[in-house]
Specification:
This protein is α/β, with parallel strands linked by helices. The protein has five helices and five strands, in the order E-H-E-H-E-H-E-H-E-H. It has a five-stranded parallel β-sheet. Helix 3 links the parallel strand 3 and strand 4. The radius of gyration is 15 Å and the shape is globular. It starts with a strand and ends in a 7-residue tail after the last helix.
Length: about 160
Amino acid sequence: MRVQVCAVGRLRSGPEHTLIEDYLTRFDRTGRGLGLGPAKIVEVEDKKGGGQSAEADLLRRSVPKGALVCGLDERGKTLNSPDFAAMLAKWRDAGRQDVTFIIGGADGIDPALRDDADQLLSFGKMVWPHMLARVMLAEQLYRAASILAGAPYHRA
């Protein structure tokens, strides 16, 4: 099951970029034998300043046809790491070829796109900068693959 993270904005080199690359590399390595991955980041940028609606159009265009769409949103479901791993495994076992996680810009995900998502996921009641949300998602993807592989990374 291919995993794609579609996010608004360009991530420049720096600690966040380094962490994302590291975690996604680990995810790809660990997930390969489990039918998970590869994972990639797709960045979209609304250069015309059209707001959430324009960002939503760009995000929609970046989603592979037939992909399950999971939006990261403060109104979404809060899961612990084992439940997140189980959700990925369920999608994989249901025959999903592609899963796309959507991360909006500074104002979040457009309500219409949020309503169209198959799943909404929250990293808690706090609002996180979208660049940190990418890091947190990448880490949770790796953690999920580790849990499913029975590796010792997750110690709960």
